[in-house]
Design goal:
Peroxidase, domain 1
Length: 119
């Protein structure tokens, strides 16, 4: 079998992570791209961390994906570690990380909603 494309990797990761999502998680996943567009990635990660529970779970899944894509480590680097890295990132790197967050969240929104069906 051939190696997965980046889009397939994003889809697979979003599918796996959304397996145990509730309707609340689905709603959070649907809203995150607009929040990031309006406020920025770091502000939204801080908001999710502060809110805790379902918000923090979705944010930890996003952090894990970003860690895998940019550091090759398939685990959540943690809120503080990622925030420190984002504050030190060059503008180009920050833009690339934000673009990747949007690309993964597009898949998460669709996969999470599809898994929940008409619940």
């Amino acid at each position: 079998m051939s190696e997965q494309t980046l889009e397939q990797q994003r889809a697979q990761d979003a599918w796996n992570k959304s397996a145990e999502y509730t309707k609340e998680h689905v709603n959070i996943a649907k809203g995150l791209p607009a929040l990031i567009m309006n406020s920025g990635l770091m502000q939204v990660l801080a908001f999710c961390h502060e809110k805790g529970k379902a918000n923090e779970l979705v944010a930890s899944h996003l952090r894990q994906w970003l860690g895998k894509r940019f550091n090759g480590v398939d685990r959540d680097p943690g809120f503080e570690a990622l925030m420190e890295a984002l504050m030190k990132a060059s503008p180009g790197d920050y833009q690339a990380i934000t673009a990747e967050a949007f690309a993964w969240l597009r898949w998460l929104r669709q996969m999470a909603a599809a898994r929940k069906g008409g619940d």
